[in-house]
Amino acid sequence: MEAVRLQGARVLRDAQGGDARALLGSRGSSSSSSSSSSSSTSGRVRLPLRRSKSRLSVVALDAAQPFDYESRRMEQMHKESKLKVGIVGFGNFGQFLAQRIVKQGHAVLAHSRSDYSSLCDEMGVSFFRDVDDFCEEHPDVVLLSTSILSTEAVLRSLPLQRLKRSTLFVDVLSVKEFPKTLFQQVLPAEFDILCTHPMFGPESGRGSWNSLPLVYDKVRVGSGVRDERCQRFLEIFEREGCRMVEMSCAEHDRFAASSQFITHTVGRMLGKLELESTPINTKGYETLLDLVQNTQGDSFDLYYGLFMYNINATEELERLELAFDALKKQLFGKLHNVLRKQLFDVGSAATNH
Ligand code: NAP
């Protein structure tokens, strides 16, 4: 008996001749039929097949069963598409990311300076107080989400020798040149490096990540399975609808200083004014109140990190100051003109009088 595969149906041709059978909805059993009409009883469908010299058995496969080769292969492929992501630094942003990663079916483990065991239990994340235990779990990806200021100390304290020989290191720091250089200096050559910056946070990305930018730079990613692993990690953001922006770390820092740092600075400045909602809020004012709320939710460490670890930040702060001075000069210059005009007009009127 020879077997031929036809669009999901197993066709068995009996060399001795005879009729053909097709089974749908029931597997494993066979039915013999010589009927030429089609019928369906208890899930069986007899296909109208002409009698021929050779016997043809058509066995249509129904839903895949767990013991099938196909099912096992599918299951394996599903498992292979899932990553074991180890998050180091389980603060505000680490938790925010973990939520979505878990939701996508990846295994997430975490390690942090503080104890997040009970929170992790609720979130479906395995928490490791001991960093050696964390590394011995051999995550595919180690995701660094510590404060910018503590990153170097945390990275240098990791027992890298306990990790898999090829591990993908990812950072989500809001500055990019600094972690890139640090990773290149500290991590062994076999480790891959992906620098990312999700340009949103727990406030701005609360509901959906759709259209929010994810900046990334594949600083050092091997080929083949290593590139696939990196791609699978990036897919986490793609699936959430992020706008994927590939850009060098240096370019990121230039853009970020004039956008992100200015946003945080203005938000924090306005925060110091303790602005309050009024019954006659304009849309513009509402935007300012939102800005204050968005930026004040972040730690001061984060803001300080934006300033300290982005070489373009100081220049932006100076530009901001100059712009404010220029605006003040413009206002007072106009005011002086009005006063001067009044003084001279009064003066000339008095003389004439
Ligand atoms: P953060 O204040 O920048 O960082 C808090 C995290 O750093 C916590 O996990 C904390 O650990 C850890 N940490 C702080 N000091 C430490 C130290 N001395 N030793 C060890 N760990 C230390 O706040 P975040 O918002 O969670 O940000 C985390 C990272 O994500 C930062 O690099 C930030 O630039 C980046 N990021 C944040 C946002 C955002 O909107 N928040 C957006 C994009 C990127 P414990 O909690 O265990 O104390």
UniProtKB/TrEMBL annotation:
Entries under Gene3D superfamilies matching the protein: NAD(P)-binding Rossmann-like Domain
Highest taxon listed in the record's lineage: Eukaryota
GO biological process, one term: tyrosine biosynthetic process
SUPFAM superfamilies: NAD(P)-binding Rossmann-fold domains (SSF51735)
InterPro entries: Arogenate_DH_2, NAD(P)-bd_dom_sf, P5C_Rdtase_cat_N, Prephen_DH, TYRAAT1/2, TYRAAT2_C
Domain Prephenate/arogenate dehydrogenase as annotated: residue spans: 83-353
UniProt xrefs under Pfam families: F420_oxidored, TYRAAT1_C
Record's protein name: Prephenate/arogenate dehydrogenase domain-containing protein
Source organism (scientific name): Selaginella moellendorffii (Spikemoss)
